[in-house]
Specification:
The chain is of the alpha/beta class. Helix content is 44%, strand content 13%. The chain has a 7-stranded mixed β-sheet, sandwiched between helices. β11 and β12 form a beta hairpin. The two termini are 20 Å apart. Bound molecules: pyridoxal-5'-phosphate. Pyridoxal-5'-phosphate binds next to α5. Belongs to the SHMT family.
């Protein structure tokens, strides 16, 4: 029963340093968030000790009566949250959920249509080095010159290639997808529609983004992005049509024992996601992203070659276009890091620079909204970012402004 700090001071020091980093800097990686203490508490419980291969009520191990309760609560809550008839809360991650979902509705060698990685898609939507790209025949679709998914191209490619699956979803895209139009195209060519809502699930739960569940055959998500829970994945479906195939793709198809401690934490986060407080937080997330986009299209930003893809945002992130800036994505990321703001560089459509450098930044507001940031705070962050991307920026002055914001909204005040 020796506590971590005594048993393993080296690991404890890394954990402490990470807590301090999260508390003292501004986290603006669009795929990150801060899980509530209760969620982390559930994740740090004895449920980590339990083997529970199978599903609630149908396990391959004894002693599952309590993890069954926690897993069933998670299933019931997420079904209710998104209006789904089917849910699987066992996927260890978003990528695991996607792997299981794809193998449940398609066979290796089948054709899949997904948004090109370089245009905002995810690795699991057909990137060449990913299982999806290696085992399926991938036809990528793209965004148009305005930065919007080119639905005419989706329809044309669908008709030309008769895909088994059309994937709608993204990791870097600032607008809503037209799920009804994807459904129409899928029906026209006899394809399944899989929506990966990993990024925007929290917005959907809050009723601030269209819900893909009524349109898609299968919906996957992570639980740790806008949804604000523990790191993990889920699979949902509007009906039970694929329930057997989806369940058996997760277990025994790709996974063994589920992480019941994480599943309990997912259940807690789904309770939070159904609350009024969560809805209000998602609204601040959206407001923050809009404030940031508005700041980065102003004349002084344009004058130094900074622009915003698609001219704004409807979601929790902004894609900054640096093609006309003297900074590349790497340099801009480093600069913001220097003043205490964490973002990630991101390839933009038709990026002239290589993927490790890029000409873009992806900046998100979920973590700061969770931290309590209000519109006035987002205005200040947006201004700091705009100033940091200018030549001759004053790193010390900007860092002081960042520290003032971090101090104004303490993160995990009870943790040390
Ligand atoms: N799907 C989308 C759209 C994502 O953006 C991500 C994560 O970046 C994933 C799936 C994969 O999630 P994970 O990192 O948990 O495997």
């Amino acid at each position: 029963n020796t506590p971590l700090h005594e048993l393993d001071p080296e690991v404890a020091a890394a954990v402490d340093a990470e807590l301090h980093r999260q508390q003292s800097t501004l986290e603006m990686i669009a795929s990150e968030n801060f899980a509530p203490v209760a969620v982390m508490e559930a994740q740090g419980t004895v449920l980590t000790n339990k083997y529970a291969e199978g599903y609630p009520g149908r396990r391959y191990y004894g002693g599952c009566e309590h993890v069954d309760v926690a897993e069933q609560i998670a299933i019931d809550r997420i079904k209710e949250l998104f209006g789904a008839e089917y849910a699987n809360v066992q996927p260890h991650s978003g990528a695991s959920a996607n792997q299981a979902a794809l193998f449940a509705i398609a066979q290796p060698g089948d054709t899949i249509l997904g948004l090109d990685l370089a245009h905002g898609g995810h690795l699991t939507h057909g990137m060449r080095l990913n299982f999806s790209g290696k085992q399926f025949n991938v036809v990528p679709y793209h965004v148009d010159d305005a930065g919007l998914v080119d639905m005419a191209e989706v329809e044309r490619l669908a008709k030309e290639n008769s895909p088994k699956v059309i994937i709608a979803g993204w990791s870097a895209y600032p607008r809503h997808l037209d799920f009804a139009e994807f459904r129409r195209i899928a029906d026209e060519v006899g394809a399944y529609l899989w929506v990966d809502m990993a990024h925007f699930a929290g917005l959907v739960a809050a009723g601030l983004h269209p819900n893909p569940v009524p349109y898609a055959d299968v919906v996957t998500s992570t639980t740790h992005k806008t949804l604000g829970g523990p790191r993990g994945g889920v699979i949902l479906a509007r009906s039970k049509e694929f329930a057997k195939k989806l369940n058996s793709a997760v277990f025994p198809g790709f996974q063994g024992g589920p992480l019941e401690h994480v599943i309990a934490a997912k259940a807690v986060s789904f309770k939070v996601a159904a609350s009024e407080e969560f809805k209000e937080r998602q609204q601040r997330t959206l407001d923050g992203a809009r404030i940031l986009a508005e700041r980065l299209v102003q004349d002084d930003a344009k004058a130094v070659g900074v622009d915003v893809l698609s001219g704004g945002t409807d979601v929790h992130l902004v894609l900054v276009d640096l093609r006309n800036s003297e900074l590349d994505g790497q340099q801009a990321e480093d600069r913001l890091h220097e003043v205490g703001i964490t973002v990630n560089r991101n390839a933009i459509p038709n990026d002239p620079r290589p993927p490790m450098v890029t000409s873009g930044l992806r900046i998100g507001t979920p973590a700061l909204a969770t931290r309590g940031f209000q519109a006035e705070d987002f205005r200040e962050v947006a201004d700091v970012i705009a100033e940091a991307l200018k030549p001759g920026f004053d790193a010390d002055a900007l860092k002081a402004r960042v520290t003032a914001l971090a101090d104004k909204h303490p993160l995990y005040p009870g943790l040390k």
